[in-house]
Amino acid sequence: MPNKRYLVIPDLHAEYADLPAFFCMIGAIGVVKPDGFICLGDVGEWESASHWQWKKKKRPPLDYQLSELGVDIKIVNGFLDIIDEHLDKANVKEKHMIQGNHDEWVDRLVEENPHLERTSHDFGKGYLFKDAVGLKKRGYKFHPVGKLLKIGHLRYYHGHHVKSKTYHARRHLQDMGCNVMYGHWHDFQQHSITQVDGEKSAWCIGCLKRMDHDANQWLGRRPTNWGHGFAVVDYFGNDFNVTVHRIINGKTCVGRETIDGNKKARAA
Questions:
Q1: pLDDT tens across 161-190, in order?
Q2: Nearest to residue 249, comparing CAs of 231, 263, 262?
Q3: Which listed residue, of 46, 78, 166, 178, carries a Cα 20 to 30 Å from 266's Cα?
């Protein structure tokens, strides 16, 4: 038996979450019964805080941005409430939130308007990402953007340090030289190399975001190689085993049990 088990989820982008995939992952929590939970970042889309949206048009008054951001904060907190409810039912005590590049957009807005760090909103005080989603109150350990979470011989982070779009798993190993799991690219990749100190691997574990054109207009309607999924990591001391679970049309299998998120998605 492993002495510790983690359930790891990639990019949710809550405002554009794929509900069948999301509820499939939620169902897996009760089956896997992990000791710990890791979110690899971009828990929200945070389009309201994106500096990119004003590249070709004049930025509106801050009050307008905060009104839009308030909607995003409500949506992201709603999804985290569902996750935390099922983690509590499974008695999961260890929770990690890794900040993604989209999550960092919220902090950049605060950097431009420092008083927002102390400004109250409907879900608490302060517009920094970690405060807007109440990570301290929820019991998450927060890992700022770009910082690596190391558990045993495997590191976790969002995945945006590497710029190679096609062979990003291979590039992660070349650049980082360690076992690493990440999201960001929304697709599935694994690459392994063997060096004098042993084998190392990199895993990209997909996303939980909708893949239709309406949710990704910035792609210009071009097709993607994205996929839905999550990972289970079993530890034997510092050594580990990774199982990536792909979600197809809202369904996956954990062991012999089929988990279907479609019914809950329709009811949501």
A1: 998 878 999 999 999 999 999 999 999 999
A2: 262
A3: 46
Domain tally, the chain: 1
The pair of three-digit structure tokens given for residue 59, joined into one six-digit string: 């930025």
For residue 121, give its domain range: 4-149+230-267
Asked, for residue 166, whether it belongs to a domain, the answer is: no
Best CA proximity match to 184, nearest among 167, 201, 205: 205
Count CB-CB contacts under 10 A for residue 124. Answer: 15
For the chain, give the longest Cα–Cα distance: 58
Residue 90 in any domain: the answer is yes
Put simply, whether the predicted model's pTM sits higher than 0.90 gets the answer yes
- Contact between 80 and 26 (Cβ < 8 Å): no
For β-strands 36-39 and 188-195, DSSP reports them as unpaired
DSSP state of 148: P
Place of tokens 């960001």: 184
Report CA dihedral (214, 219, 223, 224) to the nearest 10 degrees. -100
Secondary structure element (H or E) that encloses residue 8, with its range: strand 4-9
Residue 54: which residues within 8 A CB-CB, separation 6 or more? none
100 vs 44: CA distance, rounded Å: 9
Among 89, 1, 139, 110, which residue's Cα sits nearest to residue 46?
110
Taking all residues of the chain, what is their mean pLDDT, rounded to a whole number? 94
Residue 155 predicted with pLDDT over 80: yes
Q: What b/e readout covers 34-67, taking b as 16+ CB neighbours within 10 angstroms?
A: bbbbbbbbbbbbbbbbbeeeeeeeeeeeeeebbe
Is 262 a domain residue?
A: yes
Residue 45 within a domain: yes
pLDDT-based confidence at residue 160 (cuts at 50, 70, 90): very high
